[in-house]
Amino acid sequence: MADTLEFNEIYQEVKGSMNDGRLRLSRQGVIFKNSKTGKVDNIQASELAEGVWRRVALGHGLKLLTKNGHVYKYDGFRESEFDKLSDFFKAHYCLELMEKDLCVKGWNWGTVRFGGQLLSFDIGEQPVFEIPLSNVSQCTTGKNEVTLEFHQNDDAEVSLMEVRFYVPPTQEDGVDPVEAFAQNVLSKADVIQATGDAICIFRELQCLTPRGRYDIRIYPTFLHLHGKTFDYKIPYTTVLRLFLLPHKDQRQMFFVISLDPPIKQGQTRYHFLILLFSKDEDISLTLNMNEEEVEKRFEGRLTKNMSGSLYEMVSRVMKALVNRKITVPGNFQGHSGAQCITCSYKASSGLLYPLERGFIYVHKPPVHIRFDEISFVNFARGTTTTRSFDFEIETKQGTQYTFSSIEREEYGKLFDFVNAKKLNIKNRGLKEGMKQSYDEYADSDEDQHDAYLERMKEEGKIREENANDSSDGSGEETDSSFNPGEEDDDVAEEFDSNASASSSSGDGDSDRDDKKPAKKAKIVKEHKPRKKQPESKKGKDPNAPKRPMSAYMLWLNASREKIKSDHPGISITDLSKKAGELWKAMSKEKKEEWDRKAEDARRDYEKAMKEYSVGSKADSHRGERSKKKKKKQEKQVKGKGDKKGATSKSSSSKSPAKGMSDSFKSKEFVSSDESSSAESKKEDSEDEGAASPAPSSEDSASGSD
Length: 705
Description:
38% helix; PH-domain like; disordered C terminus; alpha+beta; 8-stranded mixed β-sheet; single chain
């Protein structure tokens, strides 16, 4: 038979709520770990008195009773697991696991039995329901009636708040059954009464959560916070953990008390009690007990007279009374040497402390996250500035915590800490990427392949090449790339046409006016190809040789179909992950084979690139010659336009009416004639037609003479 039994998804009934966790049975005893709070219940095998197996709402349940009267209930077992549990109890605990079903008759008349910390309402020998007396907050009596009030359960949607029992009178003299019932309840109930003197009192302590100044009275079984407005009584059994954390300024200390269940004020729940102390504040403390009682109760952990720093005295007293260890920061040190990191959570700024087994954030709102409940962490780029980054934590329950505005200098320290604790990092491999470029890590596939990182490297190289190509040929056009110039051209054309109609008197003025619209027209013409140019930038030359694949990509293309056949229905993401794992596990000899293929592909690519570059240079030379030829033609067209303007002016002086109607052209019309020589020839012929009537009339006159 196995020495241990483990059960997952077991539910422990605590104060009416079901807390899921893991149950482990061993030779030494029974251990249950709460998945939500991380609290561990440890029952020694020697303390077990009885074990009961019964059918409950969530399948089957196990009830364990200890010799000191405590009761533990665990639900969520399957019926088939009874034989295994029964044999284990017989072999290791020497107990008979009894089967006892609940009574479902629906009667409301029966017998009340008090056993340990349980009140059991039975009909015959079968229990109907059981009430843990630790859930009782108040017990009041009336005539033949007892009323039990319960603590409110925040984790349950519906809470039972009150139960009334009718107790019939008896004929026995001197015994009141109602009072006897109430005394049995109160002896085990969790009714906090501030009776007797406090062990010690700390006056006017600064409390951040709940906010205010409180007097803390230390009683043997509970802690009493007394403020000007509110009072809180905190049983030591509700204290989960104690933390002592140094402030970043090295002058103050946080003392944090984790509570479950939390203290309540209206609808507000306080899961943490946070006290703030100054390191310079000292105190002399005298306990309200004699030395023998102090020695007997605390076994040397406390003395009757103590002195020292205030935070040391409070933490020392709490540790002795609660009987729990105090958690302090581990060996983590940030960029500034502090044991914490300044960051923001939700709307408030605070401090994040990396501990040995978790993270804690103080103070508004306080958050404690254990390592064993973390699914993964993520380092994200800051949303507002590049000087900071965000640290994201997602738990196994799906809850996400984002700590933002962390200084960039803290990244290396925090990454090393998370890596040392072996937490899952969602974007592992990007530590170096925040500081250096992709090119310097081209061989990172040998250590751990990341398909996403590989793709990003390739895209980065393509972007750099396109940027270099565009920067080589864009020098001449940078002056005309300013978009508002297009609006200026439209305005200039209107003014130029008006100006030509009024200022046609001087040759010098007309020359200057001719130059301006020509320059404007050139800019307008150059804007048209620039609108198409971004399309050529987006893609590479289709005739250019393709870049060679890496050894991994060659292997992946050859192995993709085999991976799909071995894993039918696998997604693209899972296929990439699986391929990365196979590549990482591949032997060095097989990798060298693909490295040789990649090297051959690289040589072929370099050879093809040389041939392509020679051809592209020849094309560029031909393009330059065509540009020069085109410019030469434009100058010739411009010279003809100047001659034509002079001819039109002379003809207009001889025949004003006809010359004005035929030879007048706006400046923009003249500038647009640069595109075709055919139009310029047509205009020349029109000018000749306008000037020819004058000499023909003179010749006819001379002929008549």
